[in-house]
Design brief:
The complex is a heterodimer of chains A (about 350) and B (about 180). Helices cover about 65% and strands about 0% of the residues of chain A. Chain A has about 350 residues and is mostly helical. Chain A has one domain. Chain A has a two-stranded antiparallel ribbon with strand order 1-2. Chain B is of the alpha+beta class. Chain B has two domains: about 35 residues; about 110 residues, Alpha-Beta Plaits (2-Layer Sandwich). Chain B contains six helices and five strands, in the order ααβαββαββαα. In chain B, a hairpin with a 2-residue loop joins strand 2 and strand 3. The radius of gyration of chain B is 28 Å and the shape is elongated. Classes of the chains: A mainly alpha (about 350), B alpha+beta (about 180). At the A-B interface, helix 1 and helix 11 of A face helix 2 of B.
Chain lengths: ~350, ~180
């Protein structure tokens, strides 16, 4: 019994740590997005709160917390309140299977404990895909329950877009799964250890570069970021599915969007760029410092994730929004055949050149 | 060949990469073109046309003679002048009341050009946002106050500037001199 309690306490502590890290990253992202976007457009970004505006996320959070919570007339109150939670929870729950650092097991009071992954289940990537699909419900229900035409249109667009592009995400990672031979994210990362040419994006003789490109584009579309931000196109739909939301409910949608960004960046880093593995073995702590290897592991993982997050901002600063039919044609007629072809080629290659 | 090149450009995202290089260059060579407005302000050009003001001579007498030419020149009908005689001096007139509805003013400066005695001036004030629109209906004391704080150095009367020349008998060098 005491053992069970200790296990639960350890898990709760770990979950709290991961949640704190994710929330901190969301806070950094809200500021970094505005700053990076401003710099790319020869502006300064927020400069008022604190030196160089670095306390802006706190001010934003306080503002959202004290804002009036408005439920529009004619809205379905139950679904209206449920939708933000339905959007936020799947976005955060995906971090349960993300390995942030090396797969080490330490013994705490005789209990084996993996400090850098909350739960290494053997269908990790499937679990994440399943929960990101549930996240689409939050958007659709939020759009429908608001009793507003803009919200409804945003929700409908989101439904079509997320379904189309989740298919591409699912198919793009099949190549990686074929090579790794596992659905567990820890095993997939361990299969890419060593030099950077072992990463699945350039794993010779069957590089997954096409799958990588398909995955990055589809994940941008799936998180409703520019240039695929049709569900919340502010020039057409006010704010899309969260037009009618205010206060903390709006904040939930907002956090969910950024958490989703972090999640897809983590998956991209794990599946294609080798997760916590350094580009070269000598770039992580080794030899006499081998018991500090987790530090360099977390460092490399963070670097890769932040590279993808920067890519999100970079694309947003560069590209204009797609038209809706272009989005659909691109998803179904371009990305889907590439992803399918990649599966076929990878399967044949993996059959003739088993790793 | 050209179609092959176009195809190659498509699959390597050539155009998108060009655009992304442009944004990255702006990030690396970061030079903001915006100003942090309330903390730092633009240097205004020399001929900036800001808030209108009524001026005075250096002896404190207002310049306006109440001729109504500014009212006639104004395209937006901002100005309203009530002219009257200076008490005790039937040959001189002044503006008894002078109103400006600054909500309509488009800062064209025609009233300043129309004024024969340079009684109107355009200051360099532009921070005139107010909460109540009625605060922009200015009367004569307010306009004089704006002029006082924006033009601390006042002009002398014209006859005082050139004491040996009669006011309406200015000698023009391009005209032949009067032979007496």
């Amino acid at each position: 019994m005491a053992e069970l309690g200790l296990k639960a306490a350890l898990s709760v502590a770990q979950i709290a740590a991961v949640m704190a890290a994710v929330m901190l990253t969301v806070m950094i992202l809200t500021l970094a997005e505005r700053k990076v976007l401003g710099w790319m457009q020869d502006r300064m970004g927020p400069m008022e709160v604190g030196p160089y505006g670095i306390l802006q996320p706190i001010a934003d959070g306080l503002k959202l917390f004290f804002k009036e919570d408005i439920v529009p007339t004619g809205a379905n109150k139950f679904l209206f309140s449920l939708a933000p939670i339905l959007a936020l929870v799947p976005a955060l729950i995906g971090f349960a299977v993300i390995p942030f650092g090396p797969n080490e097991t330490v013994e705490i009071f005789g209990i084996p404990f993996k400090p850098f992954v909350i739960s290494d289940i053997n269908i990790g990537i499937l679990y994440i895909l399943a929960f990101t699909s549930i996240g689409a419900y939050g958007i659709i229900l939020g759009g429908w329950a608001s009793n507003s035409k803009y919200s409804l249109l945003g929700g409908l667009r989101s439904a079509a877009q997320v379904i189309s592009y989740e298919l591409n995400v699912g198919l793009a990672i099949v190549g990686v799964l074929l090579l790794a031979g596992s659905l567990s994210l820890v095993k997939i990362t361990e299969a890419q250890s060593g030099w950077f040419w072992n990463w699945f994006v350039i794993a010779l003789p069957f590089p997954q570069i096409f799958a990588f490109v398909v995955y990055v584009i589809s994940s941008v579309a799936e998180t409703n970021r520019l240039p695929f931000d049709l569900p919340e196109a502010e020039s057409e739909l006010v704010a899309g599915f969260f037009t009618e939301y205010s206060g903390m409910r709006f904040a939930f949608f907002f956090i969910a969007e950024y958490a989703n960004m972090i999640l897809v960046s983590c998956i991209a880093a794990i599946l294609f760029l080798g997760g916590w593995n350094a580009p070269a073995p000598f770039l992580q702590f080794h030899g006499s410092l081998a018991n500090l290897a987790w530090l360099s592991g977390i460092f490399w993982f963070t670097v890769k994730v932040y590279f993808f997050l920067f890519l999100f901002f970079w694309l947003r600063a560069t590209l204009p929004r797609l038209r809706y039919d272009q989005l659909m044609r691109f998803g179904w007629k371009v990305m889907l055949p590439i992803a399918l072809g990649n599966i076929v080629v990878t399967a044949i290659a993996a059959y003739f050149f088993p790793r | 060949m050209t179609t092959f090149k176009a195809w190659l450009k498509t699959i390597t995202f050539y155009e998108i990469l060009i655009g992304m290089r442009a944004t990255l260059m702006h990030l690396l060579h970061y030079k903001p073109i915006t100003l942090q407005y309330p903390h730092e302000k633009r240097t205004l050009p020399g001929n900036y046309r800001g808030m209108l003001a009524l001026l005075r001579y250096d002896d404190g007498v207002e310049k306006c003679v109440g001729c109504d030419l500014c009212e006639a020149a104004c395209p937006s009908r901002v100005i309203r002048v009530v002219s009257s005689e200076v008490p005790g001096e039937p040959t001189k007139r002044y503006a008894k009341e002078y109103y400006m509805d600054m909500t309509r003013c488009l800062f064209c400066g025609l009233c300043v050009q129309a004024c024969p005695v340079d009684a109107l001036g355009m200051t360099r004030e532009y921070e005139w946002a107010v909460y109540d629109k009625r605060q922009l209906q200015l009367n004569k004391p307010q306009l004089l106050a704006i002029g006082d704080r924006s033009f601390p150095v006042r002009e002398k009367r014209l006859e005082m500037q050139h004491p040996n020349v009669a006011f309406f008998n200015v000698a023009y060098k391009n005209l032949p001199q009067k032979v007496s």
